[in-house]
């Protein structure tokens, strides 16, 4: 559907009007265009490891009155990673519940993350997280980080780095930044 061959973007929902469907498509496409080329490079590397041509990014709009704060669902379809965006539809409005650029960047991060069996990658990432005290900093910012995994931190940091690599706060996370720089370079 969209210009990134690494992703199969599906917009599902029988009750969507053509106008809503087009607005969602345009907003996802704009969010994808906001990502740097290197983010698709690391995604291509993951696709090569999986022996796949592309991975699914599913957009499944929810009725505006449906409960639940979840904006992003992550999992697997047929043994491959898949991400699901869950915006709320309210009339003609689309509420992504987060900055949609970050939401899409998090989805790409999840899809690009190496498998748990890549022990070298995850050991180096875990070391960077521990060295910079990222877990403690995250937990101090909110309870929702209490049970966060290394994958959770990778997804969040990838999105922040992809969209704002020059932010002053990276100085507080030099090991995390160096790791992300290295991953970016490895992805081409």
List keywords for this structure.
188 residues; alpha/beta; four-stranded mixed beta sheet; three-stranded mixed beta sheet; 7 helices; 49% helix
Rounded to an integer, what's the Rg over CA atoms? 17 Å
User: What class do helices, strands and sheet pairing give?
Assistant: alpha/beta
What general outline do the C-alpha atoms trace? globular
Strand order across the biggest sheet?
A: 1-2-5-4
The overall strand count is 7
Please tally the helical runs, counting DSSP H or I stretches of 4 or more residues: 7
Helix content: 40-55%
Tell me the series of helices and strands, N- to C-terminal. Answer: EHHEEEEEEHHHHH
The proportion of residues in beta strands is 15-25%
User: How many angstroms does the end-to-end distance come to?
Assistant: 24 Å
Describe the structure.
The chain is an alpha/beta fold. It is built from 7 helices and 7 strands. The protein has a 4-stranded mixed sheet, covered by helices on one side. Strand 6 (88-90) and strand 7 (93-95) form a beta hairpin. Helix 2 (37-50) packs across helix 7 (174-187) and helix 4 (119-132) packs antiparallel against helix 7. The model has no long low-confidence stretch (mean pLDDT 92).
